[in-house]
Amino acid sequence: MNFLISPAYAQDAAGSGGMLGGSLVQILPFILVFVVFYFLLMRPQQQRQKQLKASLAALKRGDRVVTAGGIVGVVQKSREGVNEIEVEIAQGVRVMVLRDTISTVLKDTPPVAANDGAAPTKAAK
């Protein structure tokens, strides 16, 4: 009698037709999880990156952009082949930013005025 091999292991090895069938059944859930992650997480992210790259290549004067630092500005100068873009972040304040640091190109919506939609302020006495 051999006490080192459990009966459960001996039955599994003999019943599954060898190691090939057993290992495939063990790996199959990992493959399924990877496929689900690919279609739910990785593929949409790749599509968003491709869309952002296309919109960065098509930047023109007057486009509103958001930099990676969260600064919102309007493109003033943009040339093809040059990685630097001149962005106006306030009236009369222009900065040069790298094309790669722009995180979002905003839609063509007019900026909201300072008091539009805000709660009325209390008048001074």
List keywords for this structure.
SH3 type barrels; rod-shaped; 125 residues; 2 helices; alpha+beta; five-stranded antiparallel sheet
Explained architecture:
With 125 residues, this protein is an alpha+beta fold. The protein has two domains: 7-52; 60-105, Roll (SH3 type barrels), CATH 2.30.30. 38% of the residues lie in helices and 22% in strands. It has a five-stranded antiparallel sheet. It starts with 6 loop residues before the first helix and ends in a 20-residue tail after the last strand.
Helix content: 25-40%
Q: What can be said about the biggest beta sheet?
A: 5 strands, antiparallel
Helix-strand topology string: HHEEEEE
How do the strands of the widest beta sheet line up side by side? Answer: 4-3-2-1-5
Q: Total number of β-strand segments?
A: 5
Number of helices: 2
What is the total number of structural domains?
Answer: 2
Give a quick summary of the entry.
This protein has 2 domains: 46 residues; 46 residues, Roll (SH3 type barrels).
Architecture blueprint of SSEs:
Elements lengths: L6 H9 L3 H39 L6 E4 L4 E7 L5 E7 L2 E6 L3 E4 L20
Antiparallel strand pairs: 1-2, 1-5, 2-3, 3-4
